[in-house]
Amino acid sequence: MAPNTADTALWPAPHASGAVDATVHVPGSKSVTNRALVLASLSSEPGWLRRPLRSRDTLLMAGALRAMGIEIEEGVGPDGTGEAWRVLPTGLRGPATVDVGNAGTVMRFLPPVAALADGPVRFDGDPRSYERPLTGVIDALRQLGARIDDDGRGALPLTVHGSGALEGGQVAIDASSSSQFVSALLLSGPRFNQGVEVRHTGSTLPSMPHIRMTVDMLRAVGAQVDTPESGGEPNVWRVTPGALLGRDLVIEPDLSNAQPFLAAALVTGGKVVIPDWPAHTTQPGDRLREIFTEMGGSCELTEYGLVFTGSGSVHGIDVDLGEVGELTPGIAAVAALADSPSTLRGVAHLRLHETDRLAALTKEINELGGDVTETADGLHIRPRRLHGGVFHTYDDHRMATAGAILGLGVEGVQIENVATTAKTLPDFPDLWTGMLGA
Ligand SMILES: O=C(O)C1=C[C@@H](OP(=O)(O)O)[C@@H](O)[C@H](O)C1
Ligand SMILES: C=C(OP(=O)(O)O)C(=O)O
């Protein structure tokens, strides 16, 4: 299937002439929006998503659920303000065809949903989606009673032969390559006849905050979930079968997409305010308050939102990003502009993200004159004086935003295919130039 139209045009990344001082309204969270769409589709009553993210990944999720018979009406919310989507769950139908694009959430969260449809559901996507791991989901669904046709590689393309119900029960998987395997099975678990018990058998498990997000959102729609943190066995999650409630959910801003704007305050010694930063959240981007403070900034969480201020100095950091891997490209970009070296650890699984992010960051920063080396599970970054040049993005939204951060401090950086930010943040170029007052 054809990838998202690649835009090979070069976008001159704006160079900051001084300290930024801006308020940036960041659109809704990809991870929350796509979980909310799945849960609302599996509910026994209609629900609302308010301030959903409208981006390639969330529109692919909505399109896929619609293909399986769910009605999703896009409009304004019950109180007449702001965008809201109304989800009307109906029986899940096949035959259907799902385009996952390169969305991990779509390719992992929907095969379990498809197992509940009453006919075959064919999954296909961008060329990169064929390379991203899916074994945990495919093997688990087979153990739980589903029939799946694939080409034996444990990846897309594939067809799930839904039979209207799935027995469910106990399953053991290795989710060391993606936390999304665990989230996928838990999200549909309440609708399996016996619910589901997922046991992770691998030695590491990335992105724990995203698994907590899954558990919290399941509980918010009435599911009963037992977790290692609630006194259960380590690495075991249990979801009891039961009906899910329709909710009226306000989607939080995407804190990982707030990262480039916070980085702008940090590298220019300026100030950026992100309204509606949640006081409590499972989003991994919340760790930026601590990480970017250690790198030289300071922040204050007010009722209005997060106020983040750079000091004019940017320091290197030695940090394990295993829990918050999607923050790595932005942290690497800041680290390349710092006054001391950095070591980013715990992120070997990033080699299987939108692109091999460790290889891509190393190559692209070094081509601007940087000194980055790959380690077994991360990056060493020794800041050097950088120069302008083309920053390739490999259809990876976070490579594009990382390049924009570098451009603030380095004149003449040109980002290839900035349009790839549409995966999770279609407004990025306008928000960025707006922040800079251009
Ligand atoms: O469940 C989610 O919404 C996500 C989980 C993480 O995936 P991995 O565990 O595969 O890194 C994260 O990197 C991705 O951006 C979103
Ligand atoms: C890894 C990411 O996305 P996906 O949901 O496609 O895995 C990401 O957004 O950084």
From TrEMBL:
Pfam families per the UniProt record, alphabetical: EPSP_synthase (PF00275)
SUPFAM superfamilies assigned to the protein according to its UniProt record, in alphabetical order: EPT/RTPC-like
Enzyme class: transferase
Sequence ranges assigned to domain Enolpyruvate transferase in this UniProt record: 17-430
Highest taxon of source: Bacteria
UniProt-annotated binding residues for phosphoenolpyruvate: 30, 104, 132, 180, 357, 398, 423
Active site positions: 326
Gene Ontology terms describing biological process: amino acid biosynthetic process; aromatic amino acid family biosynthetic process; chorismate biosynthetic process
GO MF: 3-phosphoshikimate 1-carboxyvinyltransferase activity
Positions that bind 3-phosphoshikimate: 30-31, 35, 178-180, 207, 326, 353
InterPro entries hit by this protein: Enolpyruvate_Tfrase_dom (IPR001986), Enolpyruvate_Tfrase_sf (IPR036968), EPSP_synthase (IPR006264), EPSP_synthase_CS (IPR023193), RNA3'P_cycl/enolpyr_Trfase_a/b (IPR013792)
Assigned EC number: 2.5.1.19
GO cellular component: cytoplasm
Compartments (UniProt record): Cytoplasm
Pathway per the UniProt entry: Metabolic intermediate biosynthesis; chorismate biosynthesis; chorismate from D-erythrose 4-phosphate and phosphoenolpyruvate: step 6/7
Keywords of this entry: Amino-acid biosynthesis, Aromatic amino acid biosynthesis, Cytoplasm, Transferase
Catalysed reactions listed for this entry: 3-phosphoshikimate + phosphoenolpyruvate = 5-O-(1-carboxyvinyl)-3-phosphoshikimate + phosphate
PANTHER family from the UniProt entry: AROM/DEHYDROQUINATE SYNTHASE, PENTAFUNCTIONAL AROM POLYPEPTIDE
Function in brief: Catalyzes the transfer of the enolpyruvyl moiety of phosphoenolpyruvate (PEP) to the 5-hydroxyl of shikimate-3-phosphate (S3P) to produce enolpyruvyl shikimate-3-phosphate and inorganic phosphate.
Subunit structure, interactors included: Monomer.
Recorded family membership: Belongs to the EPSP synthase family.
Name of the protein: 3-phosphoshikimate 1-carboxyvinyltransferase
Gene name of this polypeptide: aroA
